[in-house]
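Quick log. Single chain, no ligands specified.
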Amino acid sequence: MSQKLQVAVAGAHGRMGTVARQALVEGGEYCCGLSHTAESPSRIFTTLDELWRCSPAVLLDLTTQPGSYEISLAAVKRGIPTVIGVSGWTDEQRAELDAMAKERGVGALIVPNFSVGAMLMMRFAQEAARFFGEAEIVEIHHPAKKDKPSGTSRETARRIEAASGSAPAIHSLRLTGSLAHQEVIFGGPGELLTIRHDSLSRESFVAGMMKAVHAVVRLRGLSIGLESI
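-> predicted structure:
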């Protein structure tokens, strides 16, 4: 059985943060949280100094940019392994985080999507890109999602380009009634190949999230995606 960890959640009042807190509480691993609004019974604070005083073993960053960069870099500087479920990190920011994590001898893990199914969808798309010259991505999310296109679609596009040499177009839809859905459509002479993944509830992210939290303590430097663990 995995060792119990004390995990702090940044973005504790957000949709994903609330799901993460519940899962961590049920597993006896919730330490404290960071949010714009304090909540004493749940040990949710509004400043990093208050968070650090709880001595978390791992930080789970579920905020948004640009705050994610500042929060995660601050955690790594303190020698706290950090899992980041936030898109919008630039190559320069990733490089800085990697250098700091190596300097401090801790792990940092950026996960575009915590769903195991989404991880496999990206892997299958990268493999298919070796055999098809044309591809496009359609990603659909709930209207409250701030980034567009999604981090998952951008990572999928990056992998397809690496495999085929051609970057696919990304089409982003924000529709009420949806949560997180992505299709990768490949075209060839006389045929189409569609690889699709649907997250129907945020419960689909919990297993990958917990795996990431327990894996990051064994890492050094920056890793990307669930596949890396």
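Helices lie at 15-26, 48-52, 67-77, 91-104, 116-128, 151-164, 206-215.
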